[in-house]
UniProtKB/TrEMBL annotation:
The protein, known as: Fatty acid desaturase family protein
Residues annotated as transmembrane: 20-40, 52-70, 134-160
Keywords: Membrane, Transmembrane, Transmembrane helix
Bilayer topology term: Multi-pass membrane protein
Family matches, as InterPro entries: Lipid_desat (IPR019547), Plasmalogen_desaturase (IPR052601)
Localization, UniProt: Membrane
Family of the protein in this entry: Belongs to the fatty acid desaturase CarF family.
Length: 247
């Protein structure tokens, strides 16, 4: 018998809503936006580092590639969280794995979390790349300008991923969100419904979902599952049932 939302026990490893976790989320989001601002400011101040006319297509290209990369990474992380690791693994289990497992049992769970809880974890995991880019890759030419813009836009896409995912599960999102979903610019409920159709092993990307058809046809993630499981399971633990209902 399938588990229901009420079957999911709230063990000590579930830190959802705890004061400590909210402080982590709030701090991570604050630092994330601070360094996103610093990186965006540097890109703006050094836009003349690109030859005349190059910036007119350089930044749009960085935007497109950053958004596509965010979509792929969202799918890869979603695939890992659904298939590898235990919800009891210290820190990563309750913070990153449990929410993905839980939403298969209770698809509306993500819609009951507030903005901070939905998006804080993505800010936290983005910080090493964001701070490292700002500190170690100063802009001094076309390549570094493009890289800074690409990383900034890629990580902003990662920041938006869980919010887009939440809206795709929301039965009554704001009208302007529904319009964006219909354009395909962000993940839509009809598109994402394919992931929630048995056997639940496809359409993992949850930023825009643009890459899902390609990844489904090539079965890239499915081909990676067993090699990754052998490498990561000793570190992340054996995958437990959805929601941590059973071992």
């Amino acid at each position: 018998m399938s588990a229901t939302p009420h079957d999911i026990p709230r063990h000590g490893y579930d830190m959802s809503g705890s004061l400590w976790m909210r402080l982590v989320d709030a701090s991570s989001m604050s630092v994330f936006f601070f360094f996103e601002y610093l990186l965006a400011r540097d890109v703006y101040l050094h836009i003349d580092a690109a030859p005349a006319g190059l910036a007119s297509w350089l930044l749009p290209l960085a935007l497109l590639l950053g958004y596509l990369t965010a979509d792929f990474v969202s799918g890869f992380v979603h695939f890992l969280a659904d298939n590898i690791g235990s919800t009891r693994t210290p820190f990563f289990g309750p913070v990153f794995i449990r929410p993905f497992r839980e939403h298969h049992v209770d698809p509306l769970a993500i819609t009951r979390h507030d903005f901070l809880e939905v998006n804080g974890a993505n800010c936290l995991i983005s910080l090493p790349v964001l701070i490292g880019t700002w500190y170690f890759v100063p802009i001094h030419g076309t390549a570094s300008l493009f890289f800074a813009a690409y990383i900034g836009l890629f990580l902003f896409g990662i920041f938006l991923t869980n919010q887009f995912h939440s809206w795709a599960h929301n039965p009554s999102p704001p009208a302007w969100i529904r319009r964006l979903q219909r354009t395909g610019l962000i993940l839509g409920p009809e598109h994402h419904a394919r992931h929630h159709t048995p056997p639940f092993n496809t359409y993992y990307c949850i930023t825009s979902g643009w890459l899902n058809p390609i990844l489904a046809r090539t079965r890239l993630f499915e081909r990676m599952k067993e090699p990754l499981r052998r490498v990561l399971e000793p570190l992340a633990g054996k995958a437990d049932e959805v929601g941590g209902v059973q071992e």
